[in-house]
Structures
1.
Amino acid sequence: QKEVEQNSGPLSVPEGAIASLNCTYSDRGSQSFFWYRQYSGKSPELIMFIYSNGDKEDGRFTAQLNKASQYVSLLIRDSQPSDSATYLCAFLDSNYQLIWGAGTKLIIKP
Amino acid sequence: DTGVSQDPRHKITKRGQNVTFRCDPISEHNRLYWYRQTLGQGPEFLTYFQNEAQLEKSRLLSDRFSAERPKGSFSTLEIQRTEQGDSAMYLCASSLITDGYTFGSGTRLTVV
């Protein structure tokens, strides 16, 4: 059974602080990992993808991948109230289908 | 190309009626996916197409659900004899095979 585990939250972070979201996955063969942001009542929006071990930075977002430990994380620096959303982690399986976590709800407090 | 389009955005139907949703993917994407999502849950896979071929259908999907993608372009998802448990957001996404998905805005179905 291919699985993605995420803490459902809510994770509450003060405005301006770093929000850290974590995800573990079961399929050691996974090569591609994705973070989606989903606002309430809206569809998921791709914000980051990472294929290689280490860090990948894009603006205020940093994705971190550790294949040996089978976890991927998302850091959001200088958190803004507009970052309040549910963040979904997913990986591509061997059939190139996305396997999804249930998401972590993030709340940025002004 | 403005992304993935779904129609309608909202649908309210009486239990037992049939409904059909449409999805227009990004034109250069060869894969098209249908998902269902309920509050507090991640997207639940329903089915996907590669070009015009339907390659996989979720075992959780009853035979009341059917999807088509004629000519490998737009796709339709039909639900026959709707039940209250079918109320959800129905999401369509498209992709190139090895990339992440781009989602449409979704169709919110309410069965009363």
2.
Amino acid sequence: KAGVTQTPRYLIKTRGQQVTLSCSPISGHRSVSWYQQTPGQGLQFLFEYFSETQRNKGNFPGRFSGRQFSNSRSEMNVSTLELGDSALYLCASSLGGIAYNSPLHFGNGTRLTVT
Amino acid sequence: QQQVKQSPQSLIVQKGGISIINCAYENTAFDYFPWYQQFPGKGPALLIAIRPDVSEKKEGRFTISFNKSAKQFSLHIMDSQPGDSATYFCAAQQSQTGANNLFFGTGTRLTVIP
């Protein structure tokens, strides 16, 4: 089975621009979560989508948004980029059931650099 | 506010030795505690996980010890190998919400010296 696929792997943007990141979950997985990883803050939860609905949201500004399509693929959008948005953005998928029986599987991330 | 505190930040162990990483949490509603392993350039990969109804879980050379009353849990890597050199993250989740919101520790960079 193919793993979680994130595209692109690397992205360089300028302050004020917007960016869209894409995630294809493992086949059959209905839940997609997004995490931001930085050296200073570690791994922080952005939001989760399940069956095209946002099920949970972390403590990030409204500039961070996402959506999920009917095939479970997900996109994350960041508008009006700031230097502090430079990070590794990780997507994780799961079946969407009870955590112990439905662990998260992470992709290799998109490295976003904002200049 | 860091909901899961992890230590040490870095760890150097000789090949064949035991690596121990500790985590502590405050939220007693957490009921799922996974450990993730991350290699450079890769995403975190689930290593082992435990629920609070057991005090220990072992999978191969990896063991989680869980102390519910102290709100602490730890990862023990027996017979550490150079291939174990990676960053390890503990995490916690309140699984009853049904949402996949993991709270991660800040990570431990393990180096196993041959």
